[in-house]
């Protein structure tokens, strides 16, 4: 079982969370922070155990211990009656505003690919504030104007 962690993506534009061995940080101007309710001693054991043995191995981002559960409570992932935190992922912009969040049950993992796509879409609309990214948008694909008349150009092209 992986540490019960909350991942937070922070960057000049955003902070991001993803798989233990993956860190897109510099190329996407993003910083990843992992937050877990486990102790620093538990974290040490996880990173000293390689991935093939069920550990985290060479973790590419900081893992913060939230033994007081204050961070987990602040991000509404804490289940106080059970003393556990759900799997949360938050993309936070440079102003400290949560732009995207997902909270999964402990039995459900998160998708690095979808997190990357969402992060890239968010960065795109921050750089192009007069455009929006349609569902499933990926870098290089057409965006659209958030206007009933102007959006017809996008719909006519798909």
Automatic annotation (TrEMBL):
The keyword Oxidoreductase applies. One of its GO terms (biological process) is cellular response to stress. It catalyses: a hydroperoxide + [thioredoxin]-dithiol = an alcohol + [thioredoxin]-disulfide + H2O. Residues 27-100 form the Alkyl hydroperoxide reductase subunit C/ Thiol specific antioxidant domain. Residues 121-155 form the Peroxiredoxin C-terminal domain. The keyword Oxidoreductase applies. Keywords: Oxidoreductase. It comes from the Eukaryota. Transmembrane segments: none annotated. InterPro entries: AhpC/TSA, Peroxiredoxin, Peroxiredoxin_AhpC-typ, Peroxiredoxin_C, Thioredoxin-like_sf. Its EC number is 1.11.1.24. Gene3D superfamilies: Glutaredoxin. It is an enzyme of class 1 (oxidoreductase). One of its GO terms (molecular function) is thioredoxin peroxidase activity. PANTHER family: THIOREDOXIN PEROXIDASE, THIOREDOXIN-DEPENDENT PEROXIDE REDUCTASE, MITOCHONDRIAL. Thiol-specific peroxidase that catalyzes the reduction of hydrogen peroxide and organic hydroperoxides to water and alcohols, respectively. Plays a role in cell protection against oxidative stress by detoxifying peroxides. May be an antioxidant enzyme particularly in the developing shoot and photosynthesizing leaf. Belongs to the peroxiredoxin family. AhpC/Prx1 subfamily. This is thioredoxin-dependent peroxiredoxin.
């Amino acid at each position: 079982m992986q540490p019960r962690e909350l991942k937070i993506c922070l960057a000049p534009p955003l902070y991001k969370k993803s798989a233990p061995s993956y860190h897109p940080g510099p190329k996407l101007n993003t910083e990843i922070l992992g937050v877990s309710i486990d102790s620093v001693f538990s974290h040490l054991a996880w990173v000293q155990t390689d991935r093939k043995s069920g550990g985290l191995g060479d973790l590419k981002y900081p893992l913060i211990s939230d033994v007081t559960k204050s961070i987990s409570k602040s991000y509404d992932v804490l289940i106080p009656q059970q003393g556990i935190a759900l799997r949360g992922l938050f993309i936070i912009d440079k102003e400290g505003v949560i732009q995207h969040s997902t909270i999964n049950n402990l039995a459900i993992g998160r998708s690095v690919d979808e997190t990357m796509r969402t992060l890239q879409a968010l960065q795109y609309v921050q750089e192009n504030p007069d455009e929006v990214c349609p569902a499933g948008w990926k870098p290089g694909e057409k965006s659209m104007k958030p206007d009933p008349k102007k959006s017809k150009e996008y719909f006519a092209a798909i």
